[in-house]
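Why show two proteins at once? Because comparison is the fastest way to build intuition. When a single record is shown, students tend to memorize it. When two are placed side by side, the eye starts asking what differs. So, the first record is below.
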Amino acid sequence: MSGVLVLDRAQTRAALDPHRVMDAVAQALIAVSRGEASAPPRVAALAPGGLLGVMPGYVPGLGLAAKLVSVFADPAQAGRSSHRGIVALFDPEDGHPLALLDAESLTGIRTAAAATHSALALAAPRPGRIAVLGAGAQARAQLALLALLDPTTPVSVAGRDPRRVRSAAGLHPAAEAAPNAEAAVRGAAVVFCCTGAVQPVIRRDWLAPGVHVSSVGGSHGPEVDADTVRDALLFTEWPGAHAAAPPAGAYELQDLPAEKPVVLLGSVLSGTHPGRRNETGPTLFKSTGHAALDVAAAHVAHAVAVREGWGTVVDL
């Protein structure tokens, strides 16, 4: 195909086959853990109303891509922000552009896929209820993926807006709206934090023994409390999650004690690290987002769109 394939939001979403994205994201996380992926720390230009982040990356076998994403406060909804942008996929052999895709759709499912992999790999080996905190785009992406992969496990959904919480819960056949975050979290075996919080949305004393927490929000501040970070085994996508300052690194993982280990999730997925050590201590996957995951999802969307004949080819 000559030219650049452009997929609009609906076409990007349709091309992001969830099972293939799960497989590609696992491949990307393992590549990161082995030092095989090339992706510099995210940088951002600051504007009065928000920021524009830049995330280029290369993953062997998946490709070369870059994401431009804006994170701006939503004037219509106090305390919420929008994440909009584009992902450009390039040929890794000669560098010519292959495709332009909607970043919001792509980011939602690749982030949910990484969070789900963390739960599958690190949750204690016993069944239990799931909690999802948040009712925005990322929480909805997480609920949709859980509904596809595990439609029977009970899910409690909590957020600030009861109407939005009920709408999000409707995406999963076994989900119910909880009255608040504490009610959702207490007794849950897995907690997905998918919020735009600037302050922690969970507390250590809410967490059940052996809980796994997956935190993918917190672009503007800590989503997880310091006591949970202190007590949990910590897992991330890449070393910069704790070694780099925000916006590349996580707010929660700054200034960790030197003796506090942080393990790459890909090393657990590849079998080189055992992951959870016991059934009673908490585990925490703190996601900052990583360009390798964008590459993985863009690879899937491009392959599916080409196969199905979707999108518009333009000369760029």
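Second record. Ask yourself what differs from the first in the token line.
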Amino acid sequence: MIVDVHSHLFDCPEHVGDPFAAEASRAHGGEVDLTVRWSEYAATAPADTRTIVVGGKARRSGLWVDDAAVAAYVAARPDRLIGYLALDPTQPGWRDELEHGHRDLGLRGIKLMPMYAGFDPADPAYDDLYAYAERHGLPLLVHTGTTFVSAAPLRYALPVHLDEVAIRHPELRMVLAHLGHPYEGECIAVIRKHRHVYADVSALHYRPFQLWHSLRLVQDYGVWPKLLFGSDYPFTTVDASIDGLRRVGRVPGIPGLDPLDVDQIEQLIHRPSLDLLGLA
């Protein structure tokens, strides 16, 4: 079984406004259709794929997906999909949204987008959010790394901020998205330190040299087990992500250095991520 820990629900233009929509073509060189269609996702993923679906809330960047839409989407396919709520803690009412999404809608994790929303995730002001998630076993998927949105402050996307959160909340399960690119070394330093902190490899395969280099660092630091598979659909697909990982695994490597461990790449693709995140 393959577990995709990072896929989205967007209904455009209802959920995605500017500047996010206007600048999305910078993501990887060209226009991206952000409207999510289950039939298209399913056609580009193995039939046994289990998928975590997130919306997203970041008023600063023009992104707002109501949690009820995610709950309805996953409820139609409960054997395949698991839904997360999303929070923008810069906006009033986020605490009520947290409890409603968890208790009433039955969503099982939390998506945070600090850079897009414009907040420092290490700020102790958000410890109530983290304590709630830790207490109720709600894993976090946190955007780390760069973006195409000009209004989003890069400093809030640095993986090191989540080190402070993990120190204060050691039982909180977190996934740092996109291996923190282009700050992969920093991301690796964070996930190596903390038992329950992981990184996903979503939306990396279409930069193959960067992916190869990042996985080479992962191998050198011995943190292969801390990587989880993800796609970042609709920016790319499960099948394309698997193919991209296997492609860099076939690269001979630099003379004098070992190539990437292809067995570890296969283990990454088939990682039992739901068990690791307490969602099995």
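One difference worth noting in the second protein: The chain has twelve helices and eleven strands.
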